[in-house]
Amino acid sequence: MNKIYTHNKKLRDWVDKMAKLCQPDKIVWIDGTDEQRRLLEREALETKELIELDQNKLPGCFLHRTAFDDVARTEHLTFICTRRKHDAGPNNNWMSPGSAYKKAREIFKGAMAGRIMYVIPFSMGPVGSEFSKIGVELTDSRYVVLNMMVMTRVGTPVLRQLEEKNDFTKCLHSKAQLDINKRLILHFPEDNTIWSVGSGYGGNVLLGKKCLSLRIASFIARKERWLAEHMLIMGIEEPNGHIEYIAAAFPSACGKTNLAMLVPPEGLKIKGYRIWTVGDDIAWMRVDSDGALWAINPESGFFGVAPGTNSKTNPNMIDTIKKGTIYTNVLLKSDNTVWWEGADEEAPSEGIDWQGRPWKPGMRDVKGNPVLGAHPNARFTVPIKNCPSASFRLEQHHGVPISAIVFGGRRAHVAPLVYEAFNWRHGVFIGATMASERTAAQVGEVGEVRRDPMAMFPFCGYNMAHYFKHWLNMGKRMPKAPKIFHVNWFRTDERGKFIWPGFTENLRVLEWILDRCNNKVAAVKTAIGYIPKLDDIDMTGLELSRDNLEKLLEVKSSEWFEELKKIKKFFQEFKKDLPVELWEEFKNLEKRVKENG
Ligand code: OXD
Ligand code: MN
After folding, report:
1. Ligand 1 near 299 CB (within 6 A)
2. Last residue of a domain, one of 368, 386, 404
3. By alpha-carbon position, which residue is closest to atom 4 of ligand 1?
4. Residue 498 located in a structural domain
5. What range defines the domain where residue 91 resides?
6. For the chain, how many structural domains are there in total?
7. What is the pLDDT of residues 186-209, one digit of tens each?
8. Which of the ligands is closest to the CA of residue 304?
9. Least packed by Cβ within 10 Å: which of 76, 394, 406, 486?
């Protein structure tokens, strides 16, 4: 065992107990220094957990490959283990804490034999901020340690915090045999504990991310009266130098990361807009003493999807991932750089695919399907500070004040380009009824509408009906509540083509949102909320006919009647727990749509 840096008895006892269970050969405490990181990198190269990329072209960059059946979050193996099933709600898989610990203990038993157990003290949020939470992850994976060093603040400064407080999330992870049949991602919110075993994929094993910062944090946030949300946070610097911040929730595959760091379109550049990226995935938001909602991004890195990332979709990210990046499951080129489907360059003439096999473009498998060079969920892990648009307020303890909350989904029809809620309660209804259509990248029927309230369906660590109530209550505690909006970049025309160009042009919609927050423009009242007057969206430099803009903003009663039926069915799943306020909002919407004919 290397030197123990803590006097915290609770922490030392827990590490001892877990070591007895997992039987590692050695325990190493992570101090967070560059020296220790470099040592871990060297060891990971020796064990082939990492492959070194060309250090001239991609300094500090490495490649990692996961097992072929360990490439994404395994939601069916993810459980919320509360004493009462009802507290986990219909939105979660549930196991009793007793049987979950028992089942997992069998897999953890001796799982680290022949391996090192690393102890990673980490802070979600700036170290020492009242907004922040501390976790300690025990893991037998160097890849996990190196990723946690990017995604969170780790090491001695965090341990120092633990000298004063005893409150930390106990996170235990072992790769064990990487056997999908012995894989479990268990959350014990009542014990502030996470156990993850049998996986090496980021979303299952970087326990500070989805497991702590969303599932466990959402549970804590309800008790402590704040919000832990699956949201990006971005600052929009206006031409006069004033910066306003928005938080936005979108289900997977809707471009959250791209939006968080967009580069203003040519036509708007002349106005002098500038974007500041605070976060691309998670927001923790509290009501501060000024009565407004303030947010931090608890993470310090991006864990982004590589395929489709290029200079058109996300130029800032292309700059960000040129150094200090851990790539996972991308294609390795013969010059020791990387490639993925949807990258800037054409496919290379040959390479090694994400499973480590020789690859050439155009290859097909036995069923005749194209063989991909990179896995569709291939990732990069990179510090936020690498990003050219990284906010200068990332380490500020109170975070940033939020002017607008934006919900969104991928809808070919129904939802207009943008609309504004009438008030907080109506906004919560809009968030609670959010939905997105399945894309070809997901298993299941393409186009099928899936409800994903606040984009939190897979991440809410307790009964979602209680979560809705918590959102409603938060509005009552905020004299200066942000306005709530809904956007949809994905409306299609009769031929199924996207009408709105999206990406960088989305700033035009955000500009209108901020104008509404600052009472600069009026709006048109419709059955579903306020929509922009056509002339209030700045279209300078964008070729889009007025006709098409009208189509983007159209609210069709026939489509909303159908939508209401689906919402009703969804709400009924929560039975008596669904807050009456949301049923009232439902009835109000139904009435307004009827009145519109
Ligand atoms: C993610 C996700 O990985 O939402 O961020 O799935
Ligand atoms: Mn996410």
Report:
1. no
2. 386
3. 252
4. yes
5. 9-50+74-224
6. 3
7. 999 999 999 999 999 999 999 999
8. 1
9. 76
